[in-house]
Amino acid sequence: MTEITGESHQLHPAVQEFVLRWGDLGGQWGVNRSVAQIQALLLLSERALTAEEIADKLGLARSNVSNSVKELLNWKLIRRVPVLGDRRDFYEAERDMWQMASKVAQGRKEREIDPMLAAIDAAMAQVDAGGPLPPEVRRQLSDMHGFIHTVEGWYRQMIAVPPAQIMRLIKLGGKVVGLLKFVGGRGDAEGN
């Protein structure tokens, strides 16, 4: 993070704490700290902010803000909004938590799951080429292929489920696991 002053300007202590913590979490998620801090600031901002305002409030270099805003726009976690009578770009965050989670999941899928899917599919296409493949290697490739396709299929199914239904499912928590043990039998619940 390129800081100009090292201190935040005009931030309520609760907002400052959230921005700092969200920035730290960003690092754990593989996201640049400044990107996460800007998203946090915009999440809690009462109005859309310009890049200059973001830089001032967070004590960041304008170039850092510009690059971070581009990344957030690419993830569709923030958007440009017009302000009547002002030619500058203003930004606001996606505030709907389900939309935000969906956009992050979609971005992660495109960057991580889809390439993995392509890699395992390409490997599976070569299983019978180039001579015999040891049974253990064939089984491992097949298991990975099945797992990755199952995860990708689950993602496609879940993205179509309305958020209210997903929330009800989440709130059921451990009850669902208990139901699976009851319905599927003890061996299925344990992965046997």
| Strand fraction | 5-15%
- How would you characterize the largest beta sheet? 3 strands, antiparallel
H and E string: HHEHHEEHHHH
Number of domains: 3
User: Please, how many helices?
Assistant: 8
Report on the architecture of this protein:
The protein folds into 3 domains: 13-93, Arc Repressor Mutant, subunit A; 96-160; 162-192, no CATH class. The longest helix is centred in the middle third of the chain and has 29 residues, at 97-125. The chain has helices at residues 13-28, 33-44, 51-58, 62-75, 97-125, 135-159, 163-172, 174-189, and strands spanning 49-50, 78-83, 86-93. The protein is built from 8 helices and 3 strands; from the N terminus they run H-H-E-H-H-E-E-H-H-H-H.
Topology (elements, then pairings):
Blueprint: H1 13-28, H2 33-44, E1 49-50, H3 51-58, H4 62-75, E2 78-83, E3 86-93, H5 97-125, H6 135-159, H7 163-172, H8 174-189
Antiparallel strand pairs: 1-3, 2-3
Distinctive features:
disordered C terminus; 8 helices; 3 strands; 192 residues; 3 domains; Arc Repressor Mutant, subunit A; single chain; three-stranded antiparallel beta sheet; mainly alpha
Kindly summarize this structure in a few lines.
With 192 residues, the chain is mostly helical.
